[in-house]
Amino acid sequence: MSTKEIFAQRMRELRKETKEPQRVLADLLGVSINQISEMEKGTRMTTLEKLPLICKHYHVSADYLLGLTDQAEMR
Asked: Which of 55, 56, 57, 67 could form a disulfide with 6 if both were Cys (CB 3.0 to 4.6 A apart)?
């Protein structure tokens, strides 16, 4: 599985685990709901500037979101 696919899957899972609509994440990142949907489908990635916002919001490491580790918790 590619980094893009892992990122998409993990971001979608984290959002669904928190029962959060895509609108909440879109507002946090300052993007459209369509862009969140594309990220969750793996057709688009986030920017380097927005990656830390996602990590802090879901309390996970960038390494986890990018598939470099299976350890979700931030250290």
From this structure: 67
Confidence of residue 74 (pLDDT cuts 50, 70, 90): low
Residue 70: is its pLDDT beyond 90? no
Structure tokens at 51: 């990656």
Beta bridge partners of 60: 73
Confidence (pTM): 0.89
- H helices of 18-50, in order, are 22-29, 33-41
Question: How would you label 13-28 residue by residue, b for 16+ Cβ within 10 Å and e otherwise?
Answer: ebbeeeeeebeebbee
User: Among 18, 1, 8, 64, which residue's Cα sits nearest to residue 41?
Assistant: 8
Phi then psi for 47, rounded to 5 degrees? -90, 165
DSSP annotation of 60 reads B
